[in-house]
Design a protein that fits this description.
By secondary structure, the protein is α+β, with helices and mostly antiparallel strands. The chain contains 4 helices and 12 strands, in the order ββββββααββββααββ. It has one domain: 4-Layer Sandwich (Glutamine Phosphoribosylpyrophosphate, subunit 1, domain 1), CATH 3.60.20. It has helices at residues 54-68, 74-94, 154-165, 170-187, and strands spanning 4-9, 12-17, 20-24, 30-34, 38-41, 45-51, 109-116, 125-132, 140-142, 147-150, 196-201, 204-208. Strand 11 and strand 12 form a beta hairpin. The longest helix is centred in the middle third of the chain and has 21 residues, at 74-94. It is globular and about 45 Å long.
């Protein structure tokens, strides 16, 4: 299972994720290991995934696709991302690669794409979420507001939405995300470090450490 948090405020977008992955053998026994799940897409956007392990490879395929076609802003990426990722997922399933064993939550797949818009002055920071159940090829666009938690967490989304409405600095969203992930990892072995954090501002996307946001 992956835990993802993201929130939009007047300064930009905060995104955070853990790095724990679980691989199941034919008996359903799990092996946990760390893997990167958060990637830049060009200089002004990111993609982060959760669920089936193949989601990491599909994220990297989209990164190469978008960068190869010089899709610079998030407004150019969102219209093509769902169809591209669905097509790649279908390719994987058509290749008869075995679906992962294990609980339902790791057999789903999610992709969160976020970034800066060069066209929308009133809405410069945007993200979009797609997901599907195990075995479903067509990814569905999931409507989200100014924040999202995957898997869904009402308490986290309420807190991030409040910070967004109050126009809190990215520094505070990062601190909250760090605290939330650390507490969750302490009680859930399927969530674990290293935690990865990123921010999107008018200067672009960058990976950060919470204590070093201002550096």
């Amino acid at each position: 299972m992956t835990q993802i948090l993201a929130g939009i405020t007047s300064e930009g977008i905060m995104v955070a994720t853990d790095s724990m992955a679980t691989e199941f053998n034919s008996q359903g026994e799990g092996r946990r290991f760390p893997v990167d799940k958060l990637f830049s897409v060009g200089s002004y956007a990111f993609i982060v995934s959760g669920g089936m392990g193949i989601s990491v490879e599909l994220s990297l395929r989209f990164k190469r696709y978008a960068e190869g076609r010089e899709l610079l802003g998030i407004e150019a990426m969102i219209p093509v991302a769902g169809a591209f990722l669905s097509g790649q997922l279908n390719e994987v399933l058509q290749a008869s690669l075995p679906m992962e064993n294990g609980p339902d939550e790791v057999r789903r797949v999610y992709f969160l794409l976020g970034g800066y818009s060069f066209r929308s002055v009133g809405n410069p920071y945007q993200f979009a979420l797609w997901g599907s159940e195990a075995g479903e090829v067509l990814l569905k666009r999931i409507q989200v507001g100014a924040s999202v938690a995957i898997p869904r967490s009402l308490s986290a989304e309420v807190r991030l939405n409040r910070m967004s409405a109050e126009r809190r600095p990215l520094r505070e969203l990062l601190d909250f995300a760090h605290e939330f992930l650390a507490k969750l990892a302490a009680s859930d072995p399927d969530v674990g470090p290293p935690f990865r954090f990123g921010v999107v501002t008018s200067s672009g996307f960058r990976l950060v450490e919470p204590a070093r946001l201002g550096s």
